[in-house]
Amino acid sequence: MNKKVAFVTGASRGIGSAIARCLSEHGISVVIGYLNNRASAEALAEDIALKGGTAVVQHIDISNRISIRSAFSMVGDIDILINNAAISQEKPFLSISDEDWDSMLISNLRGPFACTQEVLPGMISRNWGRVVNIVSIGGQWGGMNQIHYASAKSALIGLTRSLAKTFSSQGITFNAVSPGLVETDMTKNELSSLQGMEKVRAIPVGRVGSADEVAATVAFLVMPEAAYITGQTINVNGGMYFG
Question: Catalytic: 34?
């Protein structure tokens, strides 16, 4: 695979960090997108460099179109876009405010939409591109205590399919990777709750997933061997959901 450039949003920690590491191990130059945690992003870039990879850090606020354009212009050509950055919030449905709803959809749906829209012209001109959206099992089977989060992720799956139908003939694939319960900072509260522990016990493989397992799936989807896979939602959930 020729040297490609991948921009990973929300890459300073968790699944995003694992994706950045994994892509660099496959010879891909990585841009570590971060919002607030520059120190962690820089530490990750240094670690990747020490292991022979290429990585730079780039501030990006995916809720702001101007910030997205500025970040991407600093990078130049982006061959691979990993829409990973997201927010979560546990809140009963009747307590969700309009502001909660809007904030969730701005970050978890409009952000990936805007990022994809900004990189797509370049991918079309080069007749090659990979877009991978990190979604969630909650967007497939519903979310009882994060209904606005689940709704945004469900819509992101729809966006993935629609883009695949529209642009895959131009050498660009669009896929979603849907983790189940993965041990990260974002899931810490859920996994420590009674409901979360019950979910873990019900997972067919008997454990939560790791960020590295999600990252490996993402890495496969951007490889030439996966060029015939588009519009798909790949489940990495230990058998929690078989859709």
Answer: no
